[in-house]
Amino acid sequence: MSTITIYTTMMCPYCSRAKSLLKRKGASFTEIDVTFEPGIRREMAEKAGRTSVPQIWIGDRHVGGCDELFALDAAGELDPLLSGAA
């Protein structure tokens, strides 16, 4: 199983959707809440090239946000990525 990291904020509906999809897939993840952490949010933005949340990494691959995660699932590419086969 690949290591999953998801940067989130409180009350973010896209963060909730992304986490729900990962949970439905049986994937465990590390959540980093940047709501009150401007320094960590800056680090996330530097790594991702984006300031919006969620920002999701599966292994070393930056997946992007909620829409990109769902697009991977619709394309049949999320399950292999989660299993570490991609």
From TrEMBL:
Residues 4-63 form the Glutaredoxin domain. InterPro entries: GLR_AS, Glutaredoxin, Glutaredoxin_subgr, GRX_bact, Thioredoxin-like_sf. It comes from Futiania mangrovi. Belongs to the glutaredoxin family. Has a glutathione-disulfide oxidoreductase activity in the presence of NADPH and glutathione reductase. Reduces low molecular weight disulfides and proteins. PANTHER family: GLUTAREDOXIN 2 (PTHR45694), GLUTAREDOXIN-1-RELATED (PTHR45694:SF18). SUPFAM superfamilies: Thioredoxin-like. One of its GO terms (cellular component) is cytoplasm. The lineage of its organism: Bacteria, Pseudomonadati, Pseudomonadota, Alphaproteobacteria, Futianiales. Pfam families: Glutaredoxin. Keywords: Cytoplasm, Disulfide bond, Electron transport, Redox-active center, Transport. One of its GO terms (molecular function) is glutathione disulfide oxidoreductase activity. This is Glutaredoxin. PROSITE patterns: GLUTAREDOXIN_1, GLUTAREDOXIN_2. Coiled coil: none annotated. GO terms for biological process: cell redox homeostasis; cellular response to oxidative stress. It comes from the Bacteria.
